[in-house]
Amino acid sequence: MEAIALAEIRDTPLSVDEVLTAVAHPRAGGTAFFVGTVRDHDRGRGVTALSYSAHPTAGQRMREVMEKVVADAGEGALHRVAALHRVGDLAVGDLAVVVAAAASHREEAFAACRRLVDDIKAEVPIWKHQTFTGGDSEWVGAC
């Protein structure tokens, strides 16, 4: 799909500038972004380490999710969308996911960006392993 400018799972640091450049389009009047960062806590517990793992099909699944969001928005509603997700060991403050949607108007851009984030989280096989200050750990998103 031409509207999908970038859809990748990476083990290297993510760039907001790269995503902004990827979704730039002369017809876009609004661009909405979501940047997910690693935080130092989860449900009241301190997080000391975090690692993301992805199934080998995660990149293709991300693209399929993005194709559906673009298709459901209607022909020409979204000019460009982009998503990057990081895997591997991350530190507090690192970018874990960057998603953007560019449309003629802000309402469509905001709606698409929100749906992209929600659908990627729900449907793409990426799992988070976090270690807490007490030494215990848990997997999030794993079956």
Automatic annotation (TrEMBL):
Transmembrane domains' residue ranges: none
SUPFAM superfamilies: Molybdopterin synthase subunit MoaE
Domain of life: Bacteria
PANTHER family: MOLYBDOPTERIN SYNTHASE RELATED (PTHR23404)
Name listed for the protein in its UniProt record: Molybdenum cofactor biosynthesis protein MoaE
